[in-house]
Please model this.
Amino acid sequence: MGKDQKDDANEPLSDYGQPLTFEKVWQMFRETDKKFKETDRKIDRLARLYGGVSENSRDVAEKFFRRGLEARDALFGIPYDQVARLEKRTGQLQGEYDIVLYNGEYMVVIEVKYKLHPDDVEDFLHRKLPAFKPLFPEYADQKLIGAVAGMSVPAVSYETAEKNGLLVLTQSGENISVMNPRDFVLKEF
Model:
């Protein structure tokens, strides 16, 4: 550094070699803000697109299992004559049940996912299934069986479900397959 430069401030310079003014800095902030907003719009668009894909996958899985169960009259030895989707909101409780099979004595409540994750099983066990009878008191005297279904069921998801007494359904070609062994003991909830 030369003797005559020791008192010079090292101010940022604009593209033209001049020190930045407040107006120039403010303009740079506005341009950066505009770029962030543009990026946010792109991220929002991607999120909507991904959400649509996720929703479509769920719909495909639900339709597959619903059609397969409508073509049967029993699941794991439990006969049924009605297949429904139930949804209800009362006070602070709310619940959406993808497939419900019932026959007047038993109700099999099935949570359907395209790919069944262990968190889905835990949520069903600890939040959705316990809310079923309080939401639908008209079925309080029925025996309640829980089941989960997935087009893809990783081993850890199956183990979590089976350990907690849930039936596990998956896709086997164009058919529904029960993953539990024949001697599996169902838990009534």
Q: What stands out?
A: Helices lie at 22-70, 118-135, 155-163.
